[in-house]
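Help needed: design a sequence for this.
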């Protein structure tokens, strides 16, 4: 009588199953590796892009574009305390949705002690309705 195959005997199947139900994050500093990462992941895998101190929203759009071009699903972090202004957030979201097919964001308060703009926390962004107005369909909220 044979025993059931162990995970060691079927690592590719186990890894493939795990990867199909996963997401990953890429730092904007690692943008040059987007195509390399895409070769290892199923098409349309969610790739989260963190909000980094000093990284303007326009640079985040470049990262989202590279991820989409690699056949993956870009998901930007929107850090409330790093948003410089309401108009900048609206324009960022408009472009992310219409030009890059972004439909999901990870909303975070951020690690800034003081807000750089009008938002003290992620709840203020949610209450304003800017995400749904831009066409965002899914929102992750970090706590």
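Sure. Designed sequence:
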């Amino acid at each position: 009588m044979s025993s059931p195959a162990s995970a060691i005997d079927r690592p590719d199947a186990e890894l493939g199953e795990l990867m199909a139900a996963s997401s990953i994050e890429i730092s904007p500093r690692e943008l040059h590796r987007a195509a390399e990462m895409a070769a290892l992941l199923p098409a349309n895998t969610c790739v989260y892009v963190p909000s980094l101190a000093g990284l303007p929203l326009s640079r985040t759009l470049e990262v989202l574009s590279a991820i989409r071009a690699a056949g993956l699903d870009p998901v930007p972090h929107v850090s409330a305390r790093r948003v410089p202004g309401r108009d900048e957030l609206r324009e960022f979201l408009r472009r992310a949705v219409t030009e890059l097919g972004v439909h999901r964001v990870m909303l975070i308060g951020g690690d800034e002690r003081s807000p750089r703009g009008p938002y003290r926390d992620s709840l203020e962004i949610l209450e304003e309705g800017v995400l749904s107005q831009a066409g965002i369909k899914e929102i992750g909220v970090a706590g």
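The CA atoms of residues 28 and 52 lie 8 Å apart.
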